[in-house]
Specification:
The complex is a heterodimer. Chain A is an alpha+beta fold. Chain A contains ten helices and seven strands. Chain A folds into three domains: 2-103, Orthogonal Bundle (Cytochrome Bc1 Complex, Chain D, domain 2), CATH 1.10.760; 148-201 and 269-303, Orthogonal Bundle (Cytochrome Bc1 Complex, Chain D, domain 2); 208-264, SH3 type barrels, CATH 2.30.30. Classes of the chains: A alpha+beta, B mainly beta.
């Protein structure tokens, strides 16, 4: 019987119906949901204390489908103030919030699928950590050796709003940052040496998009730019002369000259600006983002003759 | 720009015609001089607050207390974007009106007919959880450009004639900071100054100025001082990194002193202050910055170590008035906690603070040196009754000052809340309130609202207009001795500025959350107002008035005039 239920469950999951991996009536689950709700949902102007009306719709005293609540909470509502909570909350946490919201309504509200089994084989119930305290064994060795990168510190460097040359002024990572330069969300897939190379020597491996141009207008204004979109009689360029970069829309007839420059728009000064520790922090952060677990990079990884621009030496 | 001629009888045509050519020919682009002297061209409304001193006063007097009952709608423009309410202040330059709707849409309209001349829809990213709300309070004009701050923390400059984007700068990734722009920018000389939200997020606030022509950042003023900077020691440990201090409204400018005045919002986390022990500069401060360099010239902190979310971010109204027989240059700032501060704007000296509501329990009073007496700080973990509520003794909707009556017109709201403070750690770019609240009626009496006329220095109340629901629209004062505002049920009305008597009203069909203005074209005076219910507070009101949950949204710009 249980294997039949499992099969049914798997089919339902396969059919796209969201299936709670936990018992929505379990008081512990509801309590967890209540705590998360108070911290995340009723804050500020959004859903009000205990689901009272706020800037967001009133949640208490209404009939809800558990699957609908899960979907809206996990995916958000585009073009609205309701964010997607996937990534901020684990799947289990979102279900516990659903369980709590269901208690805000009269007892005959639907709590769908309550007769089904509590668990589905293969349902994900581990939180997706952005940063956890679980350390890989090599961290302690590297720490003993003296210099090891800290992904948390690397994140701070990447997104340091007080530094006009911080990475996020031009780059984006997992949806956060700017779109002037390339998206770095997948950068962590690349070998450590290659990442470090690109940070320290940006002009040596230039992509077409990174080509810097000197633009002179008919009125004599001269700016260094990255080229962007073009349209009927106009071109968009990123003025890199000052920071943050400014996206200018310039009519082609106003352009006197557009001359390619040698070198990347990305400054080659990071070797001077950052200490070795900071560079390791940054690379550790970039690697960790891609792997979804902490990946402290230490100086051994960089100096190891067996690693290259093409691959890390796997320990 | 069209040449416009005054309407005069033909027998007097020649001399007035020549005069008319001088007066009504195209006045040139809106440059620094025109902005500084905006009061001299009452047919236009060139700046968010009307003029740099934020009086929201139009000296036009064609519409007056005798004929206002004849005021009729002449056109309506609908933006189609109702979500979030209609919060803008329209601007008018030489017969062209500029408005913004929620979701960063800009419209240029013929101010006589309401016909659209152009529109610009900023490409707001679709897939992010919007911080705060989708509303926008308006644009800034200057040097042939129209400037708007966006929901993803960009500042864009558009060509005023065509609406085409000229430049666009990403001020800081909105996902990174949990901040964006909902207020109107301010053009000062060759720069455009813009604030930021984020007072309820784990963010370090700032005020930025950009070169109007190129969009290059000219200066940045951090509202939270960094390590080594004066004032950083007023933050315990690392709490300065996430200190809030948003500059989410629009400041003022004194051209003689060359000072930009801006109100700074609350420290983050709003209610949980344990981890940020200290005075928390420059939150809840008025800051005076050198307009060219952005350097801090003086500051005045209204509320040190705020744990109630009492932003000082609202308007800075600049008035020169006698105090104890001596004429002083003043700055009047209504604070969210229910008091209005009066400062000397040359040096930040405290002059007075007076309450604009009755239900205040977070302090007992303010002494002659500006010190807060009897602070009632909410305890962690247990519900505390705090008055006023998070909506404020007054919300951001602006006051007006009339030099004719000498009176300061502002709304006030009587209500409270139970606040439960919770320990919270900062998560960069995420909300950081440190507590939850629920609206409550005052201990004595009903929750409600009023629109009052005060002496701006002493706070002596001259008259009061009572309203059932919180008044959340700005005031407009005119030379015809009228004050205009709107209410949540959609009634837009005019009161006698001297006596407070209601002289006219019109049912606009949806509640008011924006700012009325007055302008003129071809010698005919108009009153324009955005009508459309919505906003963060609009969402909260049903906690006390359940019927408000069903109030309809809207997004209509209505313009009124006397019969032709």
């Amino acid at each position: 019987m249980s294997s039949l239920l499992c099969l049914v469950g798997i089919l339902l999951v396969g059919g796209g119906l969201q299936y709670p991996p936990i018992n929505l009536k379990d008081p512990t689950v509801v309590q967890t949901g209540s705590t998360i709700f108070a911290r995340s949902c009723s804050v500020g102007y959004c859903h009000g204390k205990e689901g009272r009306v706020g800037r967001g719709p009133r949640l208490r005293g209404k009939k809800w489908k558990a699957s609908y609540l899960f979907r809206v909470t996990a995916e958000g509502i585009p073009s609205s103030a309701m964010p997607a909570w996937t990534g901020k909350l684990s799947e289990q946490e979102i279900w516990s919030v659903v369980a709590y919201i269901l208690t805000l309504s009269p007892p005959n509200s639907e709590q769908s699928l309550s007769s089904a089994p509590d668990r589905i084989v293969g349902a994900r119930d581990q939180p997706i950590p952005l940063m956890t305290s679980k350390l890989l064994p090599k961290e302690s060795q590297a720490t003993r050796l003296g210099i090891s990168g800290d992904p948390k510190k690397g994140r701070e460097l990447f997104f340091d709003s007080s530094d006009d040359l911080s990475c996020a002024i031009c780059h984006r990572l997992k949806g956060v940052g700017a779109t002037v330069g390339p998206d770095l969300s997948q950068l962590g897939e690349r070998p450590i040496k290659e990442i470090l190379w690109d940070i320290l020597l940006p002009s040596s491996r230039l992509s077409v998009g990174g080509q810097l141009w000197k633009l002179t207008t008919q009125t004599g204004e001269q700016i260094e730019v990255l080229k962007g979109e073009q349209g009927n009689g106009w071109i968009k360029v990123y003025d890199m002369t000052g920071l943050p970069p400014v996206l200018r829309t310039i009519e082609k007839k106003h352009i006197l000259e557009l001359k390619p420059q040698t070198g990347s728009a990305m400054p080659g000064s990071y070797g001077r600006r950052y200490s070795l520790k900071q560079l390791l922090d940054l690379v550790s952060f970039l690697k960790s983002e891609n792997l979804d677990t902490p990946f402290p990079v230490n100086v051994e990884d960089v100096l190891n003759p067996l690693s290259s621009l093409k691959s890390d030496r796997v320990k | 720009m069209r040449l416009k001629f005054p309407r005069v009888p033909s027998s007097f045509l020649l001399l007035p015609l020549l005069t008319g050519l001088c007066l009504f020919s195209w006045a040139g682009p809106v440059d620094s001089k025109r902005l500084i002297e905006a009061a001299k061209e009452p047919s236009n409304w060139l700046i968010y607050s009307g003029t740099y001193d934020a009086w929201r006063y139009s000296s036009l007097e064609q519409i007056n207390r005798q004929n206002v009952k004849e005021l009729k709608p002449v056109w309506i423009f609908q933006t189609g974007k109702v979500d979030g309410g209609f919060s803008c202040t329209p601007l008018v330059e030489d017969g062209v009106m500029f408005i913004t709707s929620p979701w960063n849409r800009v419209f240029a309209l013929d101010a006589v007919t309401g016909k659209e001349l152009w529109h610009y829809y900023y490409p707001v990213p679709k897939d992010f959880g919007l911080l705060y709300g989708p509303w926008n309070r308006g644009v800034a004009l200057g040097h042939g450009l129209v400037f708007m701050g966006t929901l993803d923390n960009h500042l864009v400059a558009l060509d005023a004639k065509t609406g085409k984007e000229v430049w666009n700068v990403n001020i800081e990734s909105h996902q990174q900071c949990g901040c964006n722009i909902t207020g109107a920018p301010l053009v000062v000389k060759d720069k455009v100054v813009v604030g930021v939200t984020g007072g309820d997020s784990a963010h370090r606030g700032y005020l930025n100025a950009f070169d109007v022509k190129t969009g290059r950042r000219a200066w940045r003023f951090w509202t939270i001082p960094g390590p080594g900077e004066e004032g950083n020691q007023t933050w315990k440990g690392d709490s300065w990194k996430y200190g809030g201090g948003a500059t989410w409204m629009t400041g003022s400018y004194d051209a003689e002193l060359n000072l930009i005045y801006w109100g700074v919002g609350n420290p983050a986390a709003d209610f949980y202050g344990v981890d940020r022990a200290g005075d928390n500069l420059y939150t809840d401060c008025i800051v005076a910055l050198d307009a060219d360099s952005g350097k801090l010239k003086w500051y005045y902190q209204e509320i040190p170590h705020d744990v109630w979310d009492w932003d000082a971010a609202y308007e800075c109204v600049l008035i020169d008035l006698p105090v104890n027989g001596k004429k002083r240059k003043l700055l009047v700032n209504p604070n969210k906690g229910g008091y209005t501060w009066v400062l000397d704007r040359t040096n930040g000296e405290f002059i007075n603070a007076w309450p604009l509501v009755e239900n205040i329990n977070w302090i007992q009073g303010i002494d002659k040196q500006g010190r807060l007496l009897g602070r009632q700080e909410p305890a962690v973990g247990q519900p505390t009754l705090v008055c006023p509520s998070i909506g404020g003794g007054r919300s951001w909707n602006h006051a007006a000052y009339s030099p004719k009556t000498g009176l300061f017109y502002t709304t006030g709201i009587e209500w409270c809340q139970t606040l439960t403070v919770q320990k919270e750690d900062p998560r960069p770019g995420e909300t950081f309130f440190g507590g939850i609240f629920e609206l409550k009626k005052p201990l004595n009496g009903e929750a409600g609202s009023h629109f009052d006329a005060y002496d701006p220095v002493t706070g002596k109340k001259e008259w009061s207009y009572k309203s059932k629901y919180p008044l959340l629209a700005s005031a407009l004062a005119t030379g015809g001795n009228l004050v205009f505002t709107g209410d949540p049920e959609g009634e837009f009305f005019a009161l006698d500025a001297v006596s407070g008597k209601k002289l006219w009203s019109f049912n606009t069909g949806s509640g008011h959350r924006g700012s009325p203005i007055s302008y003129a074209v071809d010698g005919r005076q108009y009153i324009a107002v955005p009508a459309g219910w919505g906003s963060a507070l609009a969402g909260l009101l049903p906690q006390l008035w359940p019927e408000i949950e069903d109030f309809p949204g809207g997004s209509a710009l209505l313009v009124f005039a006397l019969a032709d």
